[in-house]
Specification:
The complex is a heterodimer of chains A (355) and B (266). Chain A has 355 residues and is an alpha+beta fold. Helix content of chain A is 25%, strand content 37%. Chain A has a 6-stranded mixed beta sheet with strand order 6-7-8-3-9-10, with helices on both faces. Chain A has a 5-stranded antiparallel beta sheet with strand order 13-12-11-14-20. In chain A, helix 3 packs across helix 4.
Amino acid sequence: MSEILELKNVSKQYGNTKVLDNINFKINNNEFFTILGSSGSGKSTIIRMIGGFTKPSTGEIIYENKMINDEPIFKRPFNTVFQDYALFPNMNVFDNVGFGLKIKNINKDEIKKKVLDVLAVVGLENFSNRMPQELSGGQQQRVALARAIICEPKIILLDEPLGALDAELRKQMQLFLKEIQKKIQITFIFITHDQEEAIFLSDRIAVLNNHKFEQVGSPKDLYYSPQTTYMAKFFGECNLINCQVVNQDTNSIKVKSEFGDFVIPKNNNVSHELEFVYGIRPEEVKLVNKNENSMQVKIKDISFKGSTSTINVANEKGDAFLKIQNISSNISQSLSKGASINIEFNTKLGSIFTE
Amino acid sequence: MTRSENFTKYILAGLTGLIVAALYAPIVLTIFYSFYKSRKGKIDWSSFSYEPYTKLIFERQILESLMNSIYVGIVTVICSVIIGFYFANYYHTSKSKMKELLQFIIFLPFLLPPIITGLSLLIFFREINLPRSLNTVVIGHTIFVLAIVFKIILNKLETLKPSLMESAYDLGASKWQAFYYVLLPNIKLSLIIAGLLAFTISLDETLITLFLIGNDTTWPIKLWAKMRVGFSKQVNASVTLILILTSLLVLLIASIISRSEKKIMY
């Protein structure tokens, strides 16, 4: 896959307020790339800079090996789908979609053919005479997308396009977006604050937190190999345990924790007595019979969720807690509050955070 | 409903009626006396005639002054709408702090007593040796109505989403194309409303005009001059005609506004 766009050390500030701090990423051709962050995290500013609506304070935006910081909006081969759709209220669907071509002085017959083609792609072939006001939110969204697609941009920038839709329609539009991106083979840069949406749609996700990228990677990377404790807790739940290295040999590290000692596989050398946070997802904590690697904990409460149950446990001292998920309810039924059980971590899927 | 509540209701209705009558009676009387004569405070019912209206056509001075007023009105509309749009657009898009000063200056002539505006313009025109004429009146009127035109257009611009123009640029439009295809059609109604209002204000503006007019005369000034030498039926007739004309304009404005509001409501 070839690389199409790169942001290099990009920062943006308004006056003294820092909006983005040293953003770096590369986007591949035909990729569905999502920028995920809470509102006010600066995610819209990133695509407004790519689109040319605002300039970075420092850093470079590079498109096909060329710096485009100062390129005017209309010269950039990108098109934007705005959160509020921004359809022209004085034009019907046909004219809205054909606008980009009309501006380029393309002849009428060709515009007509292309508009009808694109309207068919987004499933609105019978709506060309409607005014934007007469369409539902989802339909307006499709027109906005058609209006971008018809210009044959190299990248389509989508600024929280599903933000204004209700849950049901949102699901439909997600499917629609994913299908259409595969069909038309254009790079999508998508903005959202919705984690599920990001995981469902994206080839890769960049998570924005505190004006910086926490991590960039595929949805699986982000879930299974979080690089920070923020990321560990971002997708799903994660138990974070304070640990200290006791000793290490060629393959494993023995650590001491609030819950007892356990052994984790060794990937890199770690310094002796290093303190770190160990992250383990609730479904990767197993109930076992007492053995040399197991830790004894007390059951605080058990919540029944149908075929499985969730158990919250505390250490012997009662000052540290763990969550255990996906315990078969057959087993949890035989347990009771206050009882002691033995647990083990599936250390193949744990993460070490040394920050 | 209790009796006292009923009573209050009737009193209020009566009062409202009286106020409306007091406000509009002079206008009704003006129209009435353009058709009937009165002698010693008594109305002569047999004196109905269209004569003042037909005579009006032969009153060249009144007609000429009316044509002058319409000329001044139309040129004022063109100038004030173009300048008003330019300033409103600047105010809306600029981030400069000077724009508040700009707004203040635009509003000043409208808020100051017209006598001050008229006098200072007169002094200014003398300083630069610009002879007084209908054109200096146009300049005065434009400066006076600019505040209203500016505000109406600015209000409309502020209802437009910023993404509207951005998406036009995004789709490859130049500034002119974005203006012509997207901005203009969406603010068209506000330009028409602003223009109509500017025309009505210009039509009856007297005080500033008095300072700036040369040998020509505008319609309100002609009427004022005629009143000094006694009432004539033609004055009544021409007031009636203008009343009808401006009422129609106001109705037009109101219907345009209500239509555009329906559009926005969707």
